[in-house]
């Protein structure tokens, strides 16, 4: 019986798996690898050509085996910068992680189309050496592929690697290769077979902030009285080369160089309408923060109590309020829609290992429909009681791991809510005061003593 079920599942998987369309080829590939920050940002411009006799509506994008666990973001856009639909898929006899991309218009036979593939890889740079002293520079190594990893034949390919240093320690030299300032140019390479791999290793200096948010708890409280409160509990870790030896405050203050692997401060971007901003760490507001108002946002510069070196941690709480009319809209009747960011800009080139966003809805909501911008894990809904909430407020919890700046997108929540619920808390307060006054009247008017007064005995 189990053997029969296994055969059925295997046959179903084979039938559902896609096949590589051999009539598609990569006529030209121009790849740019940005290694100037802690993230690996790869932008690939692909000239896709249909050499067959039938039109093609979809093509495949494959993730390199070494990047499967560290792939944070992937997108494909056409020449008009419109994003194409991606869907995970499988290919027969191939264990690779693949995506099927749907074109806006079918690619006719003998025609070509240009698309742009963008990927962001986290933890793609390895500190080498892994431990350095306070005055040493931070060196990292990047392990990549000289060739564009694709299920199709690539006729021509060039790769540009952008570094944060003009004098790399070492790099692989698959000819032709050239260096100009802080850019390495590989290729052009011709007639590259499908799934080709050739190790690329670049060892260079990178003193950009290797700051990672290990956990971010974001709480959003919705109120129909005109205010939305946001609070974030953030835990950060310096994931660069660990500090070797002791820390000297005297030597650190004497070091005036701007290129240092420690983190003195960083900038957080808040919405332009944010107000009542507060910031504190575990010991209170003893860190330094400065708010600057820009045209389209509010810039908050955070300076921890001590500079962060490799392996050092810190945590803090950041909160603010925004007017609800900018994010909460009324559709028809009792239907409302909320468009709110799941994640804010914590710092430039950020990496968030774990995000947990809690959205507290008003009392009495019903028929809640959630539309996240990408796949997320929805945890068990809860109830929150606060400020005369005898009925409880629904709390929706969403969780996701391995996020970057491209994940700063809005979640849409549609729910039904009656405006009569605005009178809920005032009615509770009025009822509580009424009962209190009744008890005061009873206490003043009635005599609960067990003996009679003296004047009654004289009479």
UniProtKB/TrEMBL annotation:
Pathway: Protein modification; protein glycosylation. The keyword Transmembrane applies. Pfam families: Ribophorin_I. One of its GO terms (biological process) is protein N-linked glycosylation via asparagine. GO terms for cellular component: oligosaccharyltransferase complex. The chain crosses the membrane at residues 427-448. It is found in: Endoplasmic reticulum membrane. It is a single-pass type I membrane protein. Residues 1-19 form the signal peptide. Its main location: endoplasmic reticulum. Keywords: Endoplasmic reticulum, Membrane, Signal, Transmembrane, Transmembrane helix. Belongs to the OST1 family. Component of the oligosaccharyltransferase (OST) complex. Subunit of the oligosaccharyl transferase (OST) complex that catalyzes the initial transfer of a defined glycan (Glc(3)Man(9)GlcNAc(2) in eukaryotes) from the lipid carrier dolichol-pyrophosphate to an asparagine residue within an Asn-X-Ser/Thr consensus motif in nascent polypeptide chains, the first step in protein N-glycosylation. N-glycosylation occurs cotranslationally and the complex associates with the Sec61 complex at the channel-forming translocon complex that mediates protein translocation across the endoplasmic reticulum (ER). All subunits are required for a maximal enzyme activity. This is Dolichyl-diphosphooligosaccharide--protein glycosyltransferase subunit 1. It comes from Zophobas morio.
